[in-house]
Please model this.
Amino acid sequence: MEYRQLGNSGLRVPVLSFGTATFGGSNEFFKAWGSTQVDEATRLVNLCLDAGVNLFDTANVYSRGLAEEILGKAIKGLRDKILISTKATFPMTDEINDFGSSAFNLIKSCEDSLKRLGTDHIDIYHMHGFDANTPVEETLKALDNLIQSGKVRYIACSNFSGWHLMKSLSVSERYGWSKYIAHQIYYSLLNRDAEWELMPLGINQQIGSIIWSPLASGKLSGKYRRNQPLPADARVAQGGSPVVNTSADEERLYNIIDVLDELAQETGKTASQISLNWLLQRPTVANIIIGARNEEQLKQNLGAVGWNLTIDQVKKLDKVSEILPTYPYWHQRQFPMLNAAPKLYAGL
Model:
């Protein structure tokens, strides 16, 4: 397993981590993702560790805390061998203060996650989304206090826009508080919007990228085929996907799949393994979160590492998946001499 430095920190993480949104299935939304219980979760955790994957990603909102509870039981006796990433911000109950990034909610959420996970610290604590109703200073001071108390090791964010993250970094620097070292973002061959703002920011500020839904909710898994019925057992068909593929018209999706099939013939790898390997060759990408409902899916995803696509194969995928960026990025793209990293706008 390859390990990479996570942003501007001393923490090294495996290039693959295991996501636990499939644990629990306590409501209809998460049941469509999966309903893995403790015994199966324990087997999956051990398979990951055998492959060198020691980072496990979860969130308090996954099945309303049940995913954290199951992960906590699955890693019992293994805490010193693993890294845990969890998140807060989204509503857990209907209580008026039970969401957001206020000091009130973050301290409570962190304590609750620690209890469910059965641990005394969280290695990477993410803000699951940006709370525009709470002062950034309040959020970052609360997070810094959690680090000073030893309950959190590093902080990160998820689903922030560029200015959300840049403002947060500026406030942390001003007061000497701990900074976000990573952002967990949606990025895939199908949706490359992160390249226009978040990736250049990550390069400039040394923010590591942790990728969620790298197969675009299964659309790049190999199940989807031109002129064939959509798979009825897929997460998207069952209503379990939050992803909005704004730039993913069907023709573009199938053009990408055609190239994935071509490269599968050349490499002997699957479409999903090729999609994941492409991501690992993108700037700032430190880690990709892989999910699995069963051992077979996990083993297939683990096969995305230990080899690399050639430069020509990467260029083929770059070309077929390319999208026109939104303003002002399409305008900036016309003047590469002004860009610090022009290769971001021309394919890598």
Remarks:
- The two ends are 24 Å apart (CA to CA).
- The chain is about 35% helix and 15% strand.
